[in-house]
Design brief:
- By secondary structure, the protein is mainly alpha-helical.
- Helices cover 58% and strands 5% of the residues.
- The protein has three domains: 5-122, Winged helix-like DNA-binding domain superfamily/Winged helix DNA-binding domain (Arc Repressor Mutant, subunit A); 129-308, no CATH class; 387-474, no CATH class.
């Protein structure tokens, strides 16, 4: 279990109102110990750790809200509290030198792994994500040449990172798209939105994503990786047996059962990941990138239009026109029409007039083939289809005749009183409200519909809306 012993409250330092400051302390300590800027050859002593934390506390702000962890008179007192908390909850260890009686504070294994993840999320380091495909191929080629199983394990690790890197980039593009929309909604600045988009394209897209889609695309190296895997599978039996023994000795956690080959399992997993990267993740990345660029293009165009139209107050003009009386409104529109009705004469540039050759029609050879008479089964199917179409076919004329027959000498009737003497009457009843449409009114059949009580528990309908049908006039009667 993870949350046991000294890790029972492992994430507690990152849950209080000082969590951003604690996180900055972890990042800076990790940078001093493991990055290219590391300037110590061994674990830091207490004073050195406190100096690092004091520098980090000056960078990060304290968040409001949450629980109160206490008040500190100065940064050194707060740095001491951060150090004690990280040691207490398992992020750091306290190692005591028996000779000098001085304590050092290295990261615990769990603390270093989580801190490394937090550093990568922050994005301060430089990563060449597009190199993992090439590294997979190089490691497989080295395993094929030298037979060292370390190279095969490296290839398997690099292939795992290919899918993870695709997911990271797709998530980053989605975040960029949301941030772009959020910035535009908050500030409505064309220049800033354009600068953010082009800054991402220059600093993030070109160095990494563009290479992934072209020079180092998984499609480019997929065939080479598959060829290398096939060559490994065709190696002599003794060579493969030796590799299998070394893999079982070095990585016993990979053994599912004694009958399954670990070598074949690793080769199959690499091949599957390359296929998924080429057929699933790469198209998904292209779709996400296309959506990001389309969204940026739409937003920038919209903001440019709004920026260009800021001196043309259409809404205010419409409001002013709405406040005028009818005579003044007509006069304003007449004056605008006169101003826009000027004659504009344009002459054709002779250089643009060209005599084009007439396009010749292509001759198409066709042959008329006499079809044999259909058999009885085909004729029967056609006849049944025609009968079905006629059975459920209903037109406005039939519905008008049905309604006139039901009305008799009256001018109004409740829909619940409409008779049903056959299938045609049932279809007409189910479509009767269509006679109240504007199209029927334009033809001279003015039918007014007034909602009435809901009709339920009928023989043909479980539930239907009731209407009072009033015939105003009928020119075609």
């Amino acid at each position: 279990m993870f949350f046991e012993n000294d890790r029972s409250q492992f994430f507690k330092p990152l849950t209080g109102k000082y969590r951003e400051q604690v996180l900055e302390c972890l990042r800076l300590l990790h940078e001093r110990l493991y990055s290219s800027q590391a300037d110590y050859g061994e674990s830091l002593k207490r004073e050195q750790v406190l100096d690092v934390f004091i520098e980090a506390l000056e960078r990060a702000p304290m968040l409001e809200g949450d629980e109160d962890e206490g008040r500190f008179h100065n940064s050194r007192e707060q740095a001491t509290w951060v150090l004690n908390s990280l040691v207490e909850y398992g992020w750091l260890k306290r190692d005591k030198d028996e000779a000098s009686f001085q304590s050092t504070y290295p990261f615990s294994r769990t603390g270093r792994l989580f801190t490394q993840t937090l550093v990568e999320v922050d994005g301060r380091g430089v990563r060449t994500r597009h190199r993992n495909t090439r590294n997979t191929l190089n490691a497989l080629a080295a395993f094929l040449e030298r037979g060292e199983v370390y190279d095969l394990i490296d290839a398997q690790e690099h292939s795992e990172r290919i899918i993870a890197d695709f997911s990271d980039i797709i998530a980053e593009l989605e975040d960029r798209k949301r941030e772009l929309v959020k910035e535009v909604e908050a500030q409505q600045l064309v220049q800033q939105a354009s600068d953010q988009f082009f800054d991402f394209m220059e600093k993030r897209f070109q160095p990494d994503v563009a290479i992934r889609l072209s020079a180092d695309s998984v499609e480019k190296h997929r065939e080479s990786i598959q060829t290398t895997i096939e060559r490994i599978r065709r190696k002599p039996k003794a060579w493969k047996q030796n590799a299998e023994r070394e893999l079982r000795r070095m990585a016993p956690e990979l053994i599912d059962s004694q009958d399954n080959s670990v070598l074949w399992q690793l080769l199959d997993s690499i091949d599957t990941r390359m296929r998924n990267a080429a057929e699933i993740m790469l198209p998904a990345l292209r779709r996400t990138l296309q959506g990001f660029t389309n969204r940026a293009d739409i937003i920038i165009r919209q903001l440019s239009y709004l920026h260009n139209q800021q001196h043309s107050d259409i809404v205010g003009l419409c409001r002013d026109l709405a406040e005028l009386d009818q005579q003044a409104f007509a006069q304003r529109l007449h004056s605008a029409g006169e101003a826009m009705a000027g004659l504009k004469l344009g002459l054709i540039d002779p250089a643009q007039v060209q005599l084009r050759k007439r396009k010749q029609n292509r001759l198409a050879k066709t042959q008329i083939q006499e079809l044999a008479a259909p058999d009885q089964a085909t004729l029967r199917e056609l006849e049944i289809a025609q009968l079905l179409e006629k059975a459920f076919n209903i037109n406005a004329g039939a519905m008008r005749d049905y309604l006139r027959s039901a009305l008799g000498a009256g001018r109004q009737i409740d829909s619940r009183e409409l008779p049903i003497n056959g299938a045609e009457d049932l279809l007409s009843l189910s479509h009767i409200i269509e006679l109240g449409s504007a199209e029927q009114r334009a033809k001279g059949f003015a039918l007014q519909l007034e909602p009435s009580h809901t009709i339920s528990d009928e023989h043909y309908f479980k539930r239907r809306d009731g209407f009072l049908l009033k015939l105003e006039h009928d020119d075609h009667h």
